Amino acid sequence: MTKKREFYKLLNEGLFNKYCRAAGPIQEVSIVYKKKKDIRILNKRKEFDTIAVDFIGNFIEEKTIYADFSQPIQISTEFNNLSGTLFIEDDNFNDLILEF
Predict the structure, then answer these.
(1) What are phi and psi of 35, to 5 degrees?
(2) What is the predicted pLDDT for the residue at 9?
(3) Helix, strand or coil for residue 68?
(4) Cα separation of 5 and 43, whole Å?
(5) What's the rounded Cα separation, in Å, for the pair 86 and 54?
(6) Quick check: helix, strand or coil at residue 78?
(7) How far apart are CA 100 and CA 9, in angstroms?
(8) Which pLDDT score is estimated for 2?
(9) Distance between CA atoms of 56 and 33, rounded to whole angstroms?
């Protein structure tokens, strides 16, 4: 995994799999980034069969709360300089850890 394009693809997969969820019957939560330039790769290292990619970036947590049936409430929280590690095994997503 040397291409940034692959990194962003796997980061999107990790964010969707791990940080986009229905948090109960009345709430949905997701963490996204708006632009690729908001994410900076800091370090790549090999750990056994896995490549660990450390990064830092600006993310947005988006919550949709269905308080009643009229109109959902949307809340956005910005996280600047949020760091994390993306773990890749055999060019596939393995794990993602964000450090809040």
Answers:
(1) -130, 145
(2) 94
(3) coil
(4) 16
(5) 7
(6) strand
(7) 22
(8) 59
(9) 11
Burial (Cβ within 10 Å: 0-12, 13-18, ≥19) of residue 95 = middle
Q: Would you state the pLDDT for residue 65? A: 87
- The length of the chain is 100
Helix (H), strand (E) counts: the chain: 1, 6
Q: What is the pLDDT along the chain (100 residues), one digit of tens a residue?
A: 558 889 999 999 999 998 888 767 778 889 999 898 899 999 999 988 999 999 999 999 999 888 776 788 899 999 999 999 999 999 899 999 999 8
> What DSSP element (H or E) covers 10?
helix 4-19
CB 20 within 8 A of CB 31: yes
Tokens 């969707």 belong to which residue?
16
Burial of 70 (0-12, 13-18, 19+ CB in 10 A): exposed
> Could you identify the residue written with the tokens 């908001």?
38
Would you state the structure tokens that stand for residue 43, as one six-digit string?
A: 């370090």
